[in-house]
Amino acid sequence: MGMNIAIDGPAGAGKSTIAKRIAKKLGYIYVDTGAMYRAMALFLLREKIKPSETEKIDVKCQEADISIGYENGEQIVYLNGENVNGLIRTEEVGNMASASSPNPNVRRKLVELQQKLASDQDVVMDGRDIGTCVLPKAQVKVYLTADSRVRAERRYRELEERGVDCNLGEIEKDIIERDHQDMTREISPLRQAEDAVLIDSSHMTIEEAAEAVISLL
Ligand code: DC
Questions:
Q1: Kind of pairing, strands 140-145 and 29-32?
Q2: Residue 60: how many CB atoms within 10 A of its CB?
Q3: 99 CB within 6 A, ligand 1
Q4: Could you give the residue range(s) of every CATH 3.40.50.300 domain in the chain?
């Protein structure tokens, strides 16, 4: 087994930014598991399935082949061979990912892929259930969180920079709803693993949070 760093936490806590920074510094591979659930969600949306249609999700998800590759150090997610990186960062896809990820068939498929990636290389992997389910033996486990208002503000700035029209109050409401959905689901809910270190990034810079994780190694 390579070195495994597991970072879990709610949406907008800064997991991916911090994980990428750590991976670059240490020369590890960054694995963004949320992107895999998003690719699956995109597939389901294209099949015209609604978040509430759990039985259809159960059957249709079997037709999605999700894999990842790397180009210039950046993770690329492929959905049935198509690079979908540019299509998965929308609220619609994020909400569908949150709604479809409790499905056992969806999880089984993606967890298997994640475990394979971490089995023979050094990885920083972020998600919701990495420390608790995917990599229970990870040498470093972090639960990264931040105040929901701070997370909403970060998301707001990110969308603003991309020229997307948005509303801070609505973003925060969405974040709270998504947290609730991810934390209360039956299978692999988002929670801090017993042996994970809690880091609250509300008042930290990216650099400070990345250093806090690296110092645990
Ligand atoms: O981190 P993200 O916003 O890209 O993740 C999108 C959704 O995917 C999230 O709301 C829940 C789900 N997810 C999951 O269930 N397990 C993971 N390891 C990662 C994401």
A1: unpaired
A2: 20
A3: no
A4: 1-13+125-217, 29-121
- C-alpha span between 79 and 85 (Å, rounded): 10
178 lines ligand 1 (CB under 6 A): yes
Lowest mean pLDDT among 32-41, 79-88, 165-174: 165-174
Determine whether the shortest distance from the Cβ of 20 to ligand 1 is under 6 A: no
Please state the atom number of ligand 1 nearest to the C-alpha of residue 114.
18
Q: Which residues pair with 83 in a beta bridge?
A: 78
Query: Is 80 exceeded by the pLDDT of residue 31?
Result: yes
Counting ligand 1 atoms within 8 A of each CB, the residue from 32, 98, 154, 177 with the most, and so the one to mutate, is 98
Could you give the CA distance from residue 53 to residue 58 in angstroms, rounded to a whole number? Answer: 9
User: pLDDT tens digits for 160-186?
Assistant: 998 989 999 999 999 999 899 999 999
- Ligand 1 close to Cβ of residue 179 (< 6 A): no
The single-letter code of the amino acid at 165 is D
Q: Considering the domain 29-121 in this protein, what is its CATH number?
A: 3.40.50.300
126 lines ligand 1 (CB under 6 A): no
Q: Is the pTM of this model over 0.85?
A: yes
The yes or no reply on domain 1-13+125-217 and CATH 3.40.50.300 is: yes
